[in-house]
Amino acid sequence: MNKDIENYFLNFSKKIENNAVLIALNFDTDSKIKNKLYTIDKNYKIIKNDIENILSGYSFNNNFLIHNNKIYKNNEINENIEYINNLIENAFNENILYGIPAYFADENKNINKALFLDRDGVLIEDVGYIGTVDRVKIKSEFIDVVKEANKKGYITIVTTNQAGISYDYYSNEDVHNVHNYIYEEYKKHDAIIDDFYYCPYHIKGHVEPYNILSVLRKPEAGMHLLASKKYNIDLFNSFMIGDRDTDIVKIPYLKTLLIETEVYEIESKENIVEINDIYNLLI
User: Fold this and answer.
1) Is the N or the C terminus of the chain less surrounded, counting Cβ atoms within 10 Å?
2) pTM above 0.70, yes or no
3) Catalytic residue among 4, 30, 118, 126
4) What is the pLDDT of residue 236?
């Protein structure tokens, strides 16, 4: 299964500049991490390598790197780490360093596929900054989608931006209460949501410590990488379902399906599907 991701990296590397370096990026909340932290633009070019806040950058995961069609992996990287670090630093200085967020599943453990779900606009109606259960309106059509995902063996995981915390509209406890309510309402219909991830950070917020840039916030891939580690997820054969362009997270080999609503106009028309189409895609 990891071969699918490796092949994606190899094909991607053939489309970028000669002598460019392509690295696999990791996200971790461990403040003891010693690696440099990076940020990427929409084309996966690394644009910063001096991030200080652990929540605001990706690290090189020492699993995978490509330079001039040569693949370096795992032990080969560790055995040549000084050379690899110089390669990365020189490519960054020449503006030809690229990074793709990636999780390589542990093939010695059970590997899961996942259905990632946006919350507002997908599982529930998007009525703006929902901090109390009385404002939650369940979208009944997605109850059957979750049940189908359960039936087909997908781990179901909610990933949602909740900037309302950084704006002081509601608290972390409020978000947990809303998620518990959603979980129980879906469970009443035998539709099981396995986990909830949310990002409370927004640079325009005014509540510390939540007023920062964070790679947990979609379209960055932090939440999905954390979930992948916890559940050993094969991202290549997983799906993300959202209702806006920012739900297309920066994991280009993770298939994203977008549902049209009256709240947002979607620019990525090629990602739009009807809800009934989802059943045929979950295999």
Assistant:
1) C
2) yes
3) 118
4) 97
